[in-house]
Write a structure and sequence with these properties.
- The chain is α+β, with helices and mostly antiparallel strands.
- The protein has 2 domains: 228 residues, 2-Layer Sandwich (Pseudouridine synthase); 93 residues, TruD, catalytic domain (Pseudouridine synthase, 2-Layer Sandwich), CATH 3.30.2350.20.
- 27% of the residues lie in helices and 27% in strands.
- It has 7 helices and 16 strands.
- Strands 1, 2, 3, 4, 5, 6, 7, 8, 14, 15 and 16 form an 11-stranded mixed β-sheet that branches. It has a 3-stranded antiparallel β-sheet with strand order 10-11-12, with helices on one face. The chain has a two-stranded antiparallel sheet with strand order 9-13.
- Strand 10 and strand 11 form a beta hairpin.
- Helix 4 crosses helix 5.
- The two termini are 23 Å apart.
Length: 328
C-alpha cells in the first residue's frame, strides 16, 4: 500500500544517513514530570518502565492487573513501543485497596515508584520528555558534520508532527480522508480523537512545509503570530486565523488544497489554536562513537524526536515498525 503522506521538506541538506531504534535500548525516553505528587487523594500514581510495549496497552494491563476500569487509568502522553521508556500512570483508587510493590510488574512493564495524588493524570500534564538515542550510521561521522549538526539543532528544526501521529504507512490519514469525504465521526472515544488530531496535524505540517519552501522557517515574517517560542502555525478549528498580512497569505495558500479538511474541522467543535513552527531541543548533547551518533535532548510535550532526526539526515526505523505505536 502506498503511503498517503505528502512529502514535507527540510530546510537543510542531510548530514547523516543511518538507522534509529535498532534495539529498544537504543531509544530511551524518560518522561519529565510537570507536577509533584500531592501525597494524598483518591488516585494512585505509578511510575512505570516499559520495554517493547505501547502506552495504551500498558494502561489496559494496569487496569486488568490491579482490578480497576480502563477508564480510571490516566497518563500524560503516549510513548514509543520499540523503546525503553519511563512514565507516570494514575489509577483511581478511592478506598486505597490497590496494593503495589515497587519492582512488581508484568510482560514488558515494571513499577519503579508509587505515590498518592488528588486527580487523574491527563494528556499534557508532563513537562516534556528526555531522549537518549543511539543512531547507527552508514560510515563514521566526520567532525565537521558533528559541528554542523550541533549548530543546526541549536538554531531550531521544523516542528513537524512525526510519522507516529499518522499511523503505520499513514493509515490514520486514510481514516481522516474518509471522514472529510463524508464518513461519520464517532461521537466520542479514541477513534474520534485520532481522526481529528491526524487532520489538524497534517494541515499544520502543510503550513510548516510552506514556510520551509519560502525560506522563512527560522525568521518571522510580516503578520506572524509570535509567542515566546517564536512564530506559530495553526491547529485548525473554529475561528479566524490570528495571522495577518503576508503570513496570512502564505498560510491560506498552503491550506487552499485542503479547504474541505479545514471546513470539516471547523464544524467538529474544535477551536483554533497555535503551535510553534520551530522546535529547539533543550539539554542538547551530540557525540560520535565509531559508526554511531549519540543524541541526548529534551523536548516539550507534543514534540517528536523523529522530527529532530529528520532535520539531521536520512534515518530509517530499525525496528521494522511502521509507526512505533503499534500494539504491545
Amino acid at each position: 500500500m502506498a503511503n498517503p503522506l505528502p512529502h514535507w521538506p527540510q530546510p537543510d541538506a542531510p548530514l547523516f544517513c543511518g538507522r534509529y531504534r535498532a534495539t529498544p535500548e537504543a531509544f530511551v525516553v524518560e518522561e519529565l514530570s510537570g507536577f509533584e505528587p500531592s501525597g494524598a487523594g483518591e488516585h494512585l500514581l505509578l511510575r512505570v518502565r516499559k520495554r517493547g510495549a505501547n502506552t495504551f496497552w500498558v494502561a489496559q494491563e494496569l487496569a486488568r492487573h490491579f482490578g480497576c476500569r480502563p477508564a480510571d487509568v490516566g497518563y500524560c502522553g503516549e510513548k514509543d513501543r520499540h523503546a525503553v521508556t519511563t512514565q507516570w500512570f494514575s489509577l483511581r483508587d478511592p478506598g486505597g485497596a490497590i496494593a503495589v510493590t515497587c519492582g512488581s510488574g508484568g510482560e514488558g512493564w515494571q513499577v519503579l515508584e508509587q505515590a498518592r495524588h488528588h486527580r487523574k493524570l491527563r494528556r499534557g500534564d508532563h513537562a516534556g520528555n528526555r531522549f537518549r538515542l543511539r543512531l547507527d550510521l552508514d560510515g563514521a561521522p566526520a567532525s565537521e558534520a558533528i559541528a554542523a549538526a550541533r549548530c543546526r539543532l541549536a538554531a531550531g528544526v521544523a516542528n513537524y508532527f512525526g510519522p507516529q501521529r499518522f499511523g503505520r504507512d499513514g493509515g490514520n490519514v486514510e481514516q481522516a480522508a474518509a471522514w472529510v469525504a463524508g464518513a461519520k465521526l464517532p461521537p466520542r472515544g479514541p477513534v474520534r480523537g485520532r481522526i481529528l488530531s491526524t487532520a489538524r496535524s497534517l494541515l499544520f505540517n502543510e503550513v510548516v512545509a510552506a514556510r520551509v519552501r519560502h525560506g522563512s522557517l527560522r525568521a518571522a515574517i510580516e503578520g506572524d503570530v509570535i509567542t515566546t517560542e517564536g512564530a506559530t502555525g495553526p491547529l485548525w478549528g473554529r475561528g479566524r486565523s490570528a495571522t495577518t498580512g503576508f503570513a496570512a497569505d502564505l498560510e491560506a495558500a498552503a491550506l487552499e488544497p485542503w479547504r474541505a479538511w479545514c471546513e470539516r474541522l471547523e464544524h467538529a467543535g474544535l477551536s483554533q489554536e497555535r503551535r510553534p513552527l520551530l522546535l529547539r531541543p533543550a539539554a542538547l548533547a551530540l557525540e560520535a562513537e565509531q559508526q554511531a551518533l549519540l543524541l541526548n535532548c529534551e523536548l516539550p510535550p507534543g514534540a517528536f524526536v523523529t522530527s529532530v532526526l529528520a532535520a539531521l539526515g536520512d534515518f530509517t526505523d530499525g525496528s521494522g515498525s511502521g509507526d512505533g505505536r503499534d500494539r504491545h
